[in-house]
Amino acid sequence: MHVLVAEIELHVRSAQSLKEKRSVVTSIVRNLDQLHGVAAAEVEHQELWQRAGLGVAVVGSAPGAVEEVMDSVERHVWSRTEIDVIEFTTSWWEGDD
Fold it and tell me: Is residue 95 classed as helix, strand or coil in its secondary structure?
């Protein structure tokens, strides 16, 4: 089993309330789930109006396939015009054997 995890820091520049930010973040998370079949959630900065921290996990049997999906996730996030990507970092999860 191969698991690639992404930590994504976003700036939602148009948000003037938590409700507005959550609308944007929920749309991104839902699209990632539906389009790419990944596990995604807002995991940091829930109390801030314009900042969001997302976590995304991709699981697969082959590392190349997992990397392809994560590349697609990264392209999708960068394509969103209503946000600025502050940071997008990935790391392989090392489980117990």
Answer: coil
CB-based contact 28:83 (threshold 8 Å): yes
Residue 60's domain spans which residues?
Answer: 2-92
Number of domains in the chain: 1
Model pLDDT, residue 96: 63
Q: Say whether 27 sits in a helix, a strand or coil.
A: helix
Instruction: Tell me, yes or no, whether 70 lies in a domain.
Output: yes
Q: Identify whether 18 is part of a domain.
A: yes
Is residue 93 left, alpha or beta, with left meaning phi > 0 and alpha meaning psi from -120 to 50?
beta
| CATH number of the domain within which 29 lies | 3.30.70.1120
SS3 43: strand
Contact 95, 54 (CB under 8 A): no
The single-letter DSSP state of residue 47 is: T
| pLDDT tens-digit series, residues 4-16 | 999 999 999 999 9
d(CA 82, CA 52): 13
